[in-house]
Amino acid sequence: MARYRSAAALVAALHATGALAQQTGAPNTDTAKTGAPVADAPMTQAPTPMAGLAAGTAPLELDAISVEAGAAADPLAPVSTEEIGPERIRRAGPRGATGLLDEVAGADVVQDPTNPGVTVNVRGLQDRTRVTTMIDGARQNFQQSGHGSSALAYVDPNLLRAIELDKSVSADVGGAGALAGSVNFRTLEPGDLLDPGDAWGGEGALGTGTNGAYFDGMGALAFRPSDRVSGVLAYSRHRLGAYDVGQAGVVRQSPTRVYDADEGVAFSGSTTASALGKLIFVPTPDTKLTLSYLDYSADFDTSSAGVVDSQETTSRTATARFDWTPAGRTDEFEALLWWNGVENAQIRPARTSYDGFAVDYALDTFGGSLTERLEVATPLGALDLAFGAEAFSDATSTVALAETASDDPDGVWFSGSNPEGDRQVGGVFARGVLSPTDWMRVRAGLRLDGYAMSGTASLWDGTGYADAPVDQDGTAILPSFGVSFLPAPGIELFADYSEGWRPATLPEAVFGGSHIGFALYFAPNPNLKPERSRTVEAGVSAERDGLLFADDRGRITATVYHREVRDYISSETVYGDFGNGLQTYTGYVNVDGEANTQGLEVSGAYGFGRYDFGLSLEVTDTDFDGRYDARPWDSTTDWRDSDAALSSPPPVRLSFTAQARFWDDRVSIGGRVLHTGGASDIYSGYEIEQSTIFDAWASVRLNEVAQLTASVTNITDQAYVDPLGSTAYPAPGRTFLLSLRMAF
Description:
Elements: H1 7-17, H2 51-54, E1 81-84, H3 86-90, E2 107-111, E3 118-122, E4 132-135, E5 138-139, E6 160-166, E7 182-187, E8 200-209, E9 213-226, E10 229-240, E11 252-254, E12 257-258, E13 270-281, E14 287-304, E15 307-324, E16 332-348, E17 357-378, E18 381-402, E19 421-437, E20 440-460, E21 465-488, E22 491-502, H4 506-509, E23 522-523, E24 531-545, E25 552-566, E26 569-577, E27 582-590, E28 594-608, E29 611-624, E30 627-629, E31 639-641, E32 652-662, E33 667-676, E34 691-701, E35 706-713, E36 735-743
Parallel strand pairs: 4-7, 23-27
Antiparallel strand pairs: 1-6, 2-3, 4-5, 6-7, 8-9, 8-36, 9-10, 10-13, 11-12, 13-14, 14-15, 15-16, 16-17, 17-18, 18-19, 19-20, 20-21, 21-22, 22-24, 24-25, 25-28, 26-27, 28-29, 29-32, 30-31, 32-33, 33-34, 34-35, 35-36
């Protein structure tokens, strides 16, 4: 996607396309390119980015404006992409990353309030790397088997400046081993804080609130000693306490049992800290090297069996990216190397039936990618091409130290369900877009992916535990294709088909040992087949100014889609005879049947004068009936009905945002309503009923460098359960927040 950061370039593009947008504040010369197809909603943004204040400009700013220059802005960008900018990131709410995607149709952030880690759900699929989750292009693959979400990424919203979301699997970086798309969290860069010519600049924020929102603060310093070197250092800290649920209405655990709202939600507090360092070197005008290191740590408590466990989690991410854009040529080259290491250390005091344990779960992931983009003139029209390769390797480790050795003499309680092993996934890809006329685009892509995995499970054979080696490998060819018609300026009709492919993870294929504390045995499955998805989507997007008034502007995108998943992997009851009689286990199997999800997604924005409005709507339907073979290891088949269920969004979710600016844009007032329909979740401990939640905010620019913002979430103090949040806990009640941001 072409990204216009200078005012002159932006105006030129807008005059060329008939689109209209506004940009003030600091241009960004260091931001990485993305593929977002439309501008962030609302069309104009509240005065929270502070770079413009330091220069004395009005604080109105559009988030990372992406302009569809008719048919030619970035033909290679997938049609199902969206970019979330800093304004919507700051509206995420008081409890970390939970609300980052509340205003996005077809995607959501799932979070257990007792753990600051998050999972991204895209069109009903999540966990086990089904959605590729990245920070600055580095995959966040950490998994920990247990109750609730198993795949966790640790993200600090204070250090984010953009979220790049792709709701399909494309022939691009991030597609290897993915089933439902990808999301990339882009962190702060020097250009986010520096105007052209500035040698240094900074930003800081302090905030506090009610309902457990004790402290939220960050500081960042950017520097540019020369045109060839720039960098940024940033630090962020959050302190959350246990929150209270809403008092209006009730949350039902059954038709006759109601959650006691006076109890609050114990262990929903945490303390997190993040530090970021990023350096950008420009050796020549057409090359750039970006080095980045991000350190995240979290301290929090959880509880099981009436005992409090202390947990410390660290996530470290390092990236090195090289960009080459030769002058006078139409090609671009990008190389990326990265590492992510996550460690979760737990202190588990004694229970009634066993003594204490110290447990350490760890995952190290190394990876890299190469991408080349170029434009070619052909007799049939302009051809945009991109091709490359990507690969990554996961290595897991679990260590458990028992206070009393006889409690777990075989060492299988913790390492059994979180086994040690290695998993490599990679592939090559190519995609192209042919534009035979100015009103038509034809897209085609191809991926060739492969994987290899090895590990050793601990398998109960009726008399004791035996080693069960698991070795898997495989390849897949994944096509994608589509077509777009542009019948008039600013209007696009599109239809696309894509396929995804996800090999099993180590905790699925090498599952073993037993449940902590009692004899519920787990079993590996070396015969697990990769999951495969097929997605068809079609829709229309329109962007135009002068709809109702001379100075108004609007855009809307509507998409319908159908996705089927075959060989979905689910945990079920299985049976096997390994020489000492038939044994009963819990293990992962492929479900014989289709997991179907279909839906409608609508997103739009409209603005005129001082007023801006944003809308997102998703209507979702899922259908998943299947069976599985309960004897997966031998020639005997035992077909049984599956209990598998998708982590589906509610059937209806609607978000509407309105905002107005007054007194030369010094004051901004806005609000949001979020409605979710009731959902049926067999894994929830609650009856998930429909809910309507109201939020509001107001900000005042105090002077050229400072801005004060007040907000309230869940204004009516509703008691409700977030259908895609942790279904083990109700959502927070009314919360007031106050923050001060400064830029210099």
